[in-house]
Amino acid sequence: MRVESQPGERKGLMGARTDLERRYPWALRLYGLLAVLVWFTMGEGTILVHGKPVALRLIPLLVIGGFALRTVVARQADRIRRSEQEGRKAGDENSRPESLQGEFRKQG
Questions:
Q1: Is the model more confident about 41 or about 43?
Q2: CA 79, 85, 86, 88: dihedral to nearest 10 degrees?
Q3: How many CB atoms within 10 Å of residue 27?
Q4: Engineered SS bond to 21: which of 12, 17, 63, 97, CB 3.0-4.6 Å?
Q5: Count of structural domains within the chain
């Protein structure tokens, strides 16, 4: 019995992409769109933070920037996890942190 692939399914290297990698470019675009909307819709008021005036529109921009940074870090962590898993499946001893620690113990 032959199993047919779905029309939207990609094969090869592109098929190995995770859900996070597919959504990543769209997430960054939406963060950028939100930042532009905040910039043009927020007033030019200021508030005092530790005695210094800060533009009111910078506060939501910092929050959006924090979410964007979190997204970038999550993608990098996912890439590292996947590369470690692929290294373990291939039996590559140099990709495992335990093997490196074992080498240091042998030398010391």
A1: 41
A2: 150
A3: 16
A4: 17
A5: 1
**Residue 3 in 3-state DSSP?**
coil
pTM: 0.61
pLDDT digit string (tens) for 45-54? 888 989 999 8
Give me the count of residues in the chain. 108
Distance CA 104, CA 92 (A): 18
Q: Is 2 inside any structural domain?
A: no
Domain for residue 26, yes or no? yes
Answer yes or no: is 1 within a domain: no
pLDDT for 11 equals 47
Long-range own/partner contacts, residues 38-44 (CB < 8 A, 24 or more apart): 38/64
**Exposure string for 49-69, b = 16+ CB within 10 A, e = fewer:** eeeeeeeebbebeeebeeebe
